[in-house]
Design brief:
heterodimer, A: 685 residues, alpha+beta, 3 domains, six-stranded antiparallel sheet, five-stranded antiparallel sheet, B: 350 residues
Chain lengths: 685, 350
C-alpha cells in the first residue's frame, strides 16, 4: 500500500463507530417515516457488518444502483411530493444510508458524521420532551466519539479512551453553550417552514361515537399541563372545553357544519374585525388566569375553562375563538406549545332568545332513530312543569338506575333507546349523548361538549397535569334568560368520577404497563412519578419556552437596565471566563506530576552541589553521580554515599522505608559543606 | 508585473521574513505558542456550515433545542481549538541523524519526539515530504523515535527544507501545524548509472607485487631443504625419486590495486562521470578487492570496508559541490556551507 493512500483511509473500527452513532441518531426518526426505510436501514447495517467481519465484499455498482432505485421509488410512492418535513427527512435519511454503504475514505466518514449531527437536530422537530433531549445528548456523545475515533490512528485499540475524551470535550463545551443560549438573540421565524404532520393524532377527536372515550381513556399519556396564576379552582370547576358537537346522525356526534352558522365568520381571529356574534358572550367575573403547555396532538383544539376572555400564544401560531365559544389554533399542534388564557368562570352565552335557525341547529335529531326515547322525553316534559324540573327528573333517572363503567356493552342501531332501556351501563359519552337526545326531544336546545375534566395537582412545581384518561364528554343545555348551562349527567351517575380522576380510581385500567402511573399506589413510585413530571414541566418552562421576552427578563434581573455596553462587557467577560475554565483544565492535565518528597530532597542536594559546578549529566544515575563527586571530594565521601544510599532505598522501596534517614543525611551533608573546600569537577565535564 | 503581483509579492516577502524570524533553525525545538499556527481545516468549515444550517432551522422553527444543538456545535468547535493546540504544545522534537541516500532515492532522517508528563499526544503527523508522512502517537510513552523520508533531489549536502509538524486531533475540525527548521542535512550520493568499462587508472599494473609469506597458499617452486624448514613442506615425491631433499615454496600475490579514476571517463559530463564512478564503487565494494579513487585534486588511497566505501561515496557526493540557494522551501533562507559539520552517519557530532 502506498503511504499516500494511508492518510485518507479509515481506522478499521471506525465503521462500528459510524454505524453506532448513526443508528442512535436515526432511531427516533423512524417512528415518523414510512416502513420501507427501516428495511433499507437493516439491509445497509447487515451489509456493513458482514463487510466488517470480512465475510462479504463491498457492494458493487449494480447493488448500489438498485438501492438508489428502491429509495427513489419508496420516496415517490410514500409521499409523491417533495415539500413537507417528512419527505425531506426521509430523503436525508436515505441519503445517509446510501452514503453509509460506500464509506471508505476519511472524507466519506466525515460527511456522514456531519449528516449525523444534522439528524440529531432534526429529532427535535418531532419531540422536545426532556427524554428526547437526554437521548440526544447520548447521540451527540456517540457522534463526537466517532468523529474523534476516525482521527485516532490507534483508536481501534482504545475505544474507552475515545468515549472518555469525547465526554471531556462535551463537558468543556457545555458552559459555552449555555452562555450562547442565553445571549444569542432570538430572531424569530425568518420564513415559513414545513411542519411535521405524521404523528398519530392523540386526544379528543372531532367526532364522538359510543366507545371512543373508553378507548381514549386507555391511550395513556399527558394531554396538557396548567399553571394557575392564583389558587387552583375547585375540581368541579375544571371542565376544559375543547369541542362542541351539535350534529347527531343517530350514532355519531359531530361539529355543526360551517355553513349552518349565519352570523359572520365562524372563527374570530386576533387582529381581525370582531364578528357580530361576539356580543353574545357576557363574562360575569370570577376571573382566573393560567398558562397551558399542551402536548402535540396533531389537532388544533385548545382547551380552556369557562369563557375565555383573553388569550395569547407563544411562538408563531395564533389562537382564534370559534362560534361555539371555545379556542382553536391556526395550525395543528405538532410541537409542545405554550399559551396563556384568562377565563371567567361566571358567564352567560347567548342568553338572549335564540334565533330560529340556531334553535333548529341545537334541536336537530335524526329521523327515525330512537323513537321510544323521544316519545318518553316528550311525555316526561309534559308531566313536569318546567325545563329545570324535567332536567332534574332525567338526572335522577340516571342516578338511580344507571352504572358508570369502563366496559360498556355494545349498543344496537337505536343507541339511545338501547342504552336507556336495555344496557343501562355506560361511560361519559353514553350519558352525554343520551342526555342531549332526551333534552332535544323535549324541545330544550342542547349540545355535547367534549374536552377534559379535572387534572392531577403536582405540588412540587404547583401545576396541574391533565392526562388523556381525564378526557370527558358532558352537555350544555340552553335555558331562556340563562343561556347555555353546563349539565354533566356523568356526575349524576358517578359523582366520584368528578371528585377523583380515573387514574386514581382505576389506575390499572387506564395506565399502560410501563407507565409509572399504573403503580401509583406505591408511595415511592407515586413520588417518583410526580418528581419526573415536575422536572419535565420545569424543562419546558425554562428551556423550551425560553424566548426573547425571557431573555430580556433574565438580563434585567441580572444587571438592572440593559444597555449595549453592558451586554458586550457581559459577553466578553463570561466568554473568557468560560473558555478560561476549559483551558485551565487542559493546562492542569499537562502539568508535571507532583514530585515525591524523596525527589524534592534530592533536588536540594543537587542544588547544593550545583553551586560548585557539579551537575548530573543526562543519563547519569544518582549512584554514578554520587561516586563521581565523592571521588573528587574524599572528605565528603561518606556523607554523599550515605545520602545516596538512603535516597535509593526510598526510591525503590517507598512503602517500607521512611524519609527520615534522607532528611538526616541531607542535614549532615549541609553541615559538612560548611567551611569545607569543595573540589570542582574537571573542566572538560 | 502588474500591481497585484507586486503587492502579493511584497506581502509574501514580508511573511517569509516574519516566519524566518519566528522559526529559527535549531536541532532541538519545543512546540509552543510562538511556533504553532492554528486555523480551521476544510472539515471545520463544513462543520461550521452544518452548524449555521441548524441555527437557521432552529430560528425558523423557533425550536430552542435545535438552537441549543447549533450553539453546542459552535462551542465544541471553539473548545476544539484549545484541545488541538494543547495536543501539540509542549511537544519536543530533536533531530538525531540522517542516513545518506542516492540521488532520486529516499533519504532517511531520524527524529526523537518527547513530551512532558501529563496528557498524551495523539495523531501527530510529521513530514518533510507531504507525500511521505509519518503519524506518531505518544500515549503510553514519553518519547519515541521516528524515521522520516525525503527524496534526495540534489547531489551533495541536501537541505530537506522545513519539517511540517501537523495535527488535526481531536476532531479534525482545526489544523494546528508548524514548519520547523531542524537544521538537518542529508548527504545525497550521485545516482549510480551502470555501463562502460571499469574506469581504472592507466599504467597501473594489474599484477600485484609478489609477497613472500608464511602460510601463503599458491605453490611457487622448490628450494633446497635446509635444516629448520618445516618438514611438512618437504617434497617427498622428489626425495623418493632420489632427487634430494627439497622444500616446496609457497607464495601469495598482493591483490591488484584498483584505482577508480575520473580521468578514465573522457568525453563525459561531470554528473555522468560521478554516476559511473558511483556505480563501480558499489560494484567493487561487493567484492573484497581494495579500491581507491582519483578525482582531480583529490585522492583516496585504496582500502575496503563500509567506512571506506562511505568515504569514497561522500567524496563523490561532494565533488565540486556548492550550496545552492534554498529552492525547495520559500521560507528557508540560504545558508552558508556548514554541511560538513552537520550530524550525519559516520561522523562524530560537532
Amino acid at each position: 500500500m502506498k503511504s499516500t493512500d494511508k492518510r485518507y483511509l479509515l481506522p478499521r473500527n471506525s465503521l462500528l463507530w459510524l454505524l453506532g452513532s448513526q443508528t442512535l441518531a436515526m432511531a427516533p426518526l423512524m417512528w415518523h417515516l414510512p416502513l420501507w426505510l427501516p428495511a433499507v436501514w437493516i439491509c445497509v447495517m447487515v451489509w456493513r457488518l458482514q463487510e466488517f467481519r470480512g465475510r462479504w465484499q463491498r457492494p458493487r455498482q449494480l447493488t448500489k444502483v438498485a438501492l438508489v432505485a428502491v429509495c427513489c421509488a419508496g420516496l415517490f410512492l410514500s409521499f409523491g411530493r417533495f415539500l413537507g418535513l417528512e419527505p425531506m427527512v426521509a430523503m436525508l435519511v436515505s441519503a445517509v444510508l446510501l452514503k453509509q454503504l460506500e464509506v471508505v475514505r476519511h472524507r466519506d466518514a466525515l460527511l456522514l458524521l456531519l449528516m449525523t449531527f444534522f439528524l440529531i437536530g432534526v429529532q427535535f422537530l418531532f419531540s422536545t420532551a426532556l427524554e428526547a433531549s437526554l437521548y440526544a445528548i447520548l447521540c451527540l456523545w456517540m457522534a463526537t466519539s466517532a468523529l474523534l475515533a476516525i482521527h485516532q490512528p490507534q483508536g481501534h485499540r482504545l475505544p474507552g479512551r475515545s468515549l472518555r475524551l469525547a465526554g471531556r470535550l462535551l463537558l468543556h463545551s457545555l458552559p459555552l453553550m449555555v452562555l450562547l443560549f442565553l445571549v444569542v438573540p432570538r430572531l424569530g421565524s425568518l420564513w415559513s417552514m414545513p411542519l411535521p404532520n405524521s404523528g398519530a393524532r392523540t386526544g379528543v377527536s372531532d367526532s364522538m361515537s359510543p366507545g371512543d372515550f373508553t378507548r381514549l381513556s386507555r391511550s395513556g399519556g399527558v394531554a396538557f399541563r396548567v399553571t394557575f396564576d392564583g389558587p387552583v379552582p375547585a375540581r368541579e370547576q375544571l371542565y376544559w372545553r375543547g369541542l362542541v358537537f351539535s350534529r347527531f346522525d343517530g350514532r355519531r356526534w359531530q361539529q355543526a357544519h360551517l355553513w349552518q352558522y349565519r352570523d359572520g365568520d365562524v372563527i374570530s381571529w386576533p387582529r381581525r374585525p370582531l364578528p357580530p356574534w361576539h356580543r353574545l358572550m357576557k363574562p360575569q367575573g370570577d376571573r382566573i388566569s393560567y398558562s397551558v403547555i399542551i402536548e402535540p396532538s396533531q389537532q388544533p383544539w385548545m382547551y380552556s375553562l369557562g369563557l375565555p376572555v383573553w388569550y395569547s400564544a407563544d411562538g408563531g401560531f395564533e389562537i382564534g375563538m370559534a362560534r361555539d365559544f371555545r379556542l382553536i389554533s391556526s395550525d395543528p399542534l405538532y410541537q409542545r406549545l405554550q399559551y396563556r388564557v384568562s377565563s371567567d368562570l361566571k358567564y352567560q352565552l347567548e342568553s338572549e332568545d335564540l334565533p330560529h335557525w340556531r334553535r333548529r341547529m341545537e334541536l336537530q335529531l335524526p329521523e327515525g332513530f330512537n323513537p321510544r326515547s323521544i316519545e318518553k322525553a316528550q311525555r316526561w316534559r309534559a308531566e313536569e312543569g318546567s325545563d329545570r324540573a324535567y332536567i332534574q327528573r332525567v338526572l335522577t333517572l340516571y342516578n338511580r338506575e344507571f352504572t358508570y363503567t369502563l366496559e360498556p356493552p355494545a349498543l344496537g342501531r337505536d343507541t339511545v333507546d338501547d342504552f336507556l332501556e336495555r344496557t343501562r351501563r355506560g361511560f361519559c359519552e353514553h350519558f352525554a349523548s343520551s342526555f342531549v337526545v332526551m333534552m332535544r326531544a323535549a324541545g330544550i336546545p342542547a349540545r355535547v361538549v367534549v374536552g377534559y375534566q379535572g387534572g392531577e395537582y403536582n405540588a412540587l412545581e404547583n401545576y396541574l397535569v391533565v392526562h388523556q384518561y381525564d378526557a370527558h364528554a358532558w352537555s350544555e343545555v340552553w335555558l331562556p334568560g340563562e343561556g347555555w348551562v353546563r349539565v354533566d349527567p356523568t356526575a349524576a351517575v358517578a359523582p366520584q368520577r368528578i371528585e377523583q380522576s380515573l387514574g386514581e380510581m382505576r389506575a390499572g385500567d387506564v395506565e399502560g404497563t410501563w407507565s409509572l402511573g399504573r403503580y401509583r399506589a406505591n408511595v415511592i413510585i407515586a413520588n417518583l412519578r410526580l418528581q419526573w413530571d415536575a422536572i419535565n414541566y420545569r424543562w419546558h418552562r425554562t428551556v423550551i419556552a425560553f424566548d426573547s421576552n425571557s431573555q430580556n427578563r433574565f438580563f434585567q434581573k441580572l444587571m438592572g437596565d440593559v444597555s449595549p455596553l453592558k451586554m458586550v462587557l457581559f459577553v466578553l467577560f463570561a466568554g473568557f471566563a468560560v473558555l478560561g475554565i476549559s483551558s485551565l483544565h487542559l493546562w492542569w492535565r499537562t502539568r508535571p506530576p507532583k514530585r515525591s518528597q524523596a525527589h524534592r530532597l534530592y533536588a536540594r542536594f543537587e542544588r547544593q552541589l550545583a553551586r560548585y559546578g557539579w551537575k548530573r549529566q543526562p543519563g547519569e544515575t544518582p549512584g554514578q553521580f554520587a561516586r563521581r563527586v565523592a571521588e573528587k571530594n574524599p572528605t565528603l565521601q561518606s556523607d554523599i554515599l550515605r545520602l545516596n544510599q538512603s535516597f535509593e532505598t526510598l526510591e525503590y522501596a517507598p512503602d517500607t522505608s521512611s524519609v527520615l534517614p534522607l532528611q538526616h543525611a541531607l542535614a549532615q551533608f549541609k553541615q559538612s559543606l560548611k567551611g569545607q573546600q569543595v573540589n570542582r569537577p574537571d573542566s572538560r565535564q | 508585473m502588474n500591481a497585484y503581483e507586486r503587492l502579493s509579492g511584497y506581502f509574501q516577502q514580508r511573511f517569509q521574513r516574519w516566519v524566518q524570524r519566528r522559526l529559527q533553525p535549531a536541532s532541538r525545538q519545543q512546540l509552543n505558542n510562538r511556533r504553532l499556527f492554528i486555523f480551521p481545516s476544510r472539515a471545520g468549515f463544513a462543520y461550521l456550515l452544518v452548524t449555521l444550517l441548524l441555527w437557521l432551522i432552529g430560528t425558523n422553527y423557533e425550536n430552542n433545542l435545535v438552537l441549543s444543538l447549533a450553539f453546542f456545535l459552535l462551542s465544541l468547535f471553539i473548545v476544539c481549538i484549545h484541545h488541538t493546540f494543547f495536543n501539540l504544545s509542549g511537544l519536543e522534537i530533536e533531530y538525531l541523524r540522517s542516513a545518506p541516500c542516492f540521488l532520486g532515492e529516499e533519504g532517511e532522517l531520524e527524529m526523537q519526539l518527547q513530551r512532558r508528563s501529563g496528557e498524551g499526544k495523539e495523531a501527530v503527523m510529521l513530514a518533510y515530504d507531504r507525500e511521505l508522512p509519518q503519524e506518531v502517537d505518544l500515549i503510553d510513552t514519553r518519547s519515541t523515535k521516528v524515521k522520516l523520508f525525503i527524496g534526495g533531489q540534489r547531489r551533495g549536502w541536501y537541505d530537506p527544507g522545513r519539517l511540517l509538524v501537523e495535527s488535526h486531533y481531536p476532531l479534525g475540525l482545526v489544523r494546528c501545524w508548524s514548519w520547523l527548521d531542524m537544521d538537518a542535512r542529508l548527504l545525497v550520493y550521485p545516482k549510480p548509472v551502470a555501463g562502460g568499462e571499469m574506469p581504472l587508472s592507466q599504467g597501473g599494473d594489474s599484477e600485484g607485487d609478489r609477497l613472500d609469506e608464511q602460510g601463503a597458499e599458491d605453490f611457487h617452486g622448490f628450494k633446497a631443504y635446509q635444516p629448520g624448514m618445516s618438514p611438512r613442506h618437504i617434497a617427498w615425491k622428489h626425495y623418493a625419486r632420489g632427487q634430494g631433499l627439497h622444500s616446496k615454496e609457497y607464495a601469495s600475490y598482493r591483490e591488484p590495486k584498483l584505482w577508480l579514476d575520473w580521468d578514465a571517463l573522457q568525453g563525459m559530463g561531470r554528473e555522468a562521470r560521478l554516476s559511473r564512478l558511483c556505480h563501480w564503487v558499489l560494484k567493487i565494494s561487493a567484492t573484497q578487492q581494495p579500491y581507491g579513487l582519483r578525482l582531480p585534486g583529490q585522492e583516496i588511497a585504496p582500502g575496503t570496508g563500509t567506512e571506506h566505501k562511505q568515504q569514497i561515496l561522500k567524496a563523490l557526493a561532494l565533488y565540486q559541490w556548492q550550496a545552492q540557494a534554498g529552492t525547495q522551501d520559500p521560507y528557508k533562507k540560504p545558508q552558508a556551507d556548514k554541511g560538513l559539520f552537520a550530524k550525519s552517519v559516520g561522523e562524530p557530532a560537532a
